[in-house]
Amino acid sequence: MRHALRALPMLLLLFAGAAQAEVKIAFVDLQRALLEVEEGKKAKSTLEKMKTERQAELDKKQEELRSLQKNFEAQKEFMKDDVRQAKEKEFREKLGQLQMTFAQLQKELAQEEAKLTKGIFERMARILAKMGEAEGYTMIFEKTESSILWAPRHLDLTNDLIRRYNAGEGKK
Questions:
Q1: Is 158 a domain residue?
Q2: First CA to last CA across the chain, in angstroms?
Q3: Are the C-beta atoms of residues 20 and 149 closer than 8 Å to each other?
Q4: Burial 104-128 (b: 16+ CB within 10 A, else e)
Q5: Which pTM was predicted?
Q6: Is residue 64 in a domain?
């Protein structure tokens, strides 16, 4: 019995070594892949255009608010208290509206980004599943989500993913 107990740690080490030999791991940078596949480039362009349009809208409203504030500051000394208070209230309301508009535009951009990238990421997942099965990977990690700080380049499947995606693989 005593001899068997001494052999147990050796057996555990042997099994652990065998189990580690079967583990095959890789990673992919999905954000980089998104920016480099053709559909991702189109999505980014669409989002940039939308962002530029929304920013112009915000800039216009901001300028209107600045002008209102400038006029108010120049005239407030000559205003009756009730008129000054009404103008201050109007300014606060317009500022609140501007803040709400900004929040709404941010939300719209985030929703549009999610809509445009959802299908791309789903297709990438199908490609990665196929790659994982074909190459015998135990796990494929996402570089930024798994906080990979360093790994050998040969474990990075991003270029292969981009190539396969642009070649049309993974479509339903």
A1: yes
A2: 60
A3: no
A4: ebeeeeeeebeebbeebeebbeebb
A5: 0.73
A6: yes
Give the chain's domain count.
1
* Chain position carrying tokens 């990979």: 148
Whether 154 and 25 have beta carbons less than 8 Å apart is answered as: no
Residue type, 138: T
Give the Cα separation of 13 and 2 in Å (integer).
18
Residues whose CB falls within 8 Å of the CB of residue 15, separated by 6 or more in sequence, listed in order? none
pLDDT (tens digit per residue) in 29-55: 999 999 999 999 999 999 999 999 999
Domain enclosing residue 102, as ranges:
20-166
Assess if residue 51 is contained within a domain. yes
What is the CATH number for 151?
3.30.910.20
Helices 81-135, 38-75: axis angle to 10 degrees equals 170
